[in-house]
Amino acid sequence: MISILTIVGARPQFIKAAAISRAVRNHFGGRVREYMLHTGQHYDENMSQVFFEQMQIPQPDFRLNVGSGSHGQQTGDMMKQIEEILLTQRFDALLVYGDTNSTLAGALAAAKLHIPVIHVEAGLRSFNKSMPEEINRICTDHVSTFLFPPTEAGVQNLEKEGFRFDAQRAASPDNPLVKNVGDVMYDNSLFFAELAETQSTITQTLGVHDKPFVLCTIHRDFNTDNAQRLNALFKGLNAIAETGTEVILPCHPRTKKKIESLTEKPHDRVRITEPVSFFDMIKLEKHALQIITDSGGVQKEAYFFRKPCIVLRPETEWVEILHTGNGILADADPEKMTEAFHRFAGRQTADYPALYGDGQAARHILDEVLSVLEKPGNA
Ligand code: UD1
Ligand code: UDP
């Protein structure tokens, strides 16, 4: 039996973890024992617990309760506590998702103890190192033994950084296994789409079931912590609301803290709510006219549900969405936002070619990992 310690801590990681946990439960029961560690990076009920309940994620075996803090403090605290756990119990591998401080802390702690690191969502790059996430993902990729980029762009980025793609499966931090197996978030969107449709009543609750609305999320530090940018974003949203369209904005706690000090007061049709559950989010995404976001995950979900996406950033890691014409970078420029909104509103047809795998990424990841770890001498 291969034992894997999965590190989660932030909202998108709970969501991604649901896919692998489901695959372990349904297909690898006798071969993999997954332990879950929650760093406590996100802790509000609607940023954490709601996902465990709704998406049937096993309750964490370990809880670190690190909470919020500066990057060094938060990451250091996590590393210290993860290392203690890794020293008291044997794990065959440690699995991390994406690019948060929880990802980096887990990867560094494990790699230095020579425990193979599995990086799900490897290879993505914004080429902008002022983003903490860019630093986290580069460092994590370079200490990982198994790298699973979700897109061809991710594979190419790794290739440019010197990762080799020989078929032999030695798999070590010096010769990692790199494979695009698709995106676990796509697995989830397929799996939960119908459930969300029948179980979520969010569109009725918000009174937009029969009304046109756009869905918006904002949480990146460079948008929330820069008053000029945040005001510009609300200027853009207000202009869109002026056209008669409701703007539904489930608000990350980081953003909520800044909204009161906005000089650009939100229009009545800009509806700021608490963060919503995953089912509510999917329902909103499926029914929205367009999606406006600086989130990584929400950009992809817009694509999965065939919705045009206005990206509130100067660049994106999900470049393929731009290449298909279904995403536009508007940065924090109100004019670009409204121009993109009108361009998408006026378009007649759209093509969303399959880009994110076959909906079974989680199974493929476990197959690849086991093909190495189950070899005699490895486990
Ligand atoms: C983190 C990730 C980011 C990811 C996002 C997903 C890092 C560096 N950033 O950003 O990549 O896209 O999660 O949502 O890891 N807060 C609460 N309650 C909570 C959680 C946060 O009030 O449950 C507030 C705190 O004031 C905290 C702030 O939000 O200081 C930021 O939280 P933090 O986890 O540091 O970063 P995120 O912006 O959430
Ligand atoms: N999400 C959610 N409720 C919300 C906002 C987002 O369930 O109120 C989900 C969303 O559907 C996606 C994920 O959270 O699956 C994206 O996480 P987030 O935007 O926090 O982080 P990022 O993907 O940018 O790292």
Overall description:
With 379 residues, this protein is an alpha/beta fold. The protein folds into two domains: 2-183 and 357-373, Glycogen Phosphorylase B (Rossmann fold), CATH 3.40.50; 189-346, Glycogen Phosphorylase B (Rossmann fold). The protein has 16 helices and 13 strands. The strands form two sheets. It has a seven-stranded parallel β-sheet with strand order 3-2-1-4-5-6-7, with helices on both faces. It has a six-stranded parallel β-sheet with strand order 10-9-8-11-12-13, with helices on both faces. α4 runs parallel beside α5 (132-143) and α7 (184-199) crosses α13 (296-304). The longest helix is centred in the first third of the chain and has 18 residues, at 71-88. The protein is globular. The mean pLDDT is 96. Bound molecules: uridine-diphosphate-N-acetylglucosamine (UD1) and uridine-5'-diphosphate (UDP). Residues 11-12, 15, 217, 219, 250, 275-276, 278, 281, 295-298, 301 line the site of uridine-5'-diphosphate.
Overall helicity: 40-55%
CA-CA gap between termini: 8 Å
CATH class of the largest domain: Alpha Beta
Biggest sheet architecture: 7 strands, parallel
- According to DSSP, the number of beta strands is 13
Low-confidence stretches: none
Do you know the CATH architecture of the largest domain?
A: 3-Layer(aba) Sandwich
Q: Which superfamily, in CATH terms, is the homologous superfamily of the largest domain?
A: Glycogen Phosphorylase B
Mean pLDDT: 96
Q: Give the overall shape, derived from the CA principal axes.
A: globular
Q: Structural class, from helix and strand content?
A: alpha/beta
Helix and strand sequence: EHEHEHEHEHEHEHHEHHEHEHEHEHEHH
Record the strand order, biggest sheet: 3-2-1-4-5-6-7
CATH topology of the largest domain: Rossmann fold
Total separate domains: 2
Q: With helices defined by DSSP (H or I, 4 residues minimum), what is the helix count?
A: 16
What are the bound molecules? uridine-diphosphate-N-acetylglucosamine, uridine-5'-diphosphate
Strand content: 5-15%
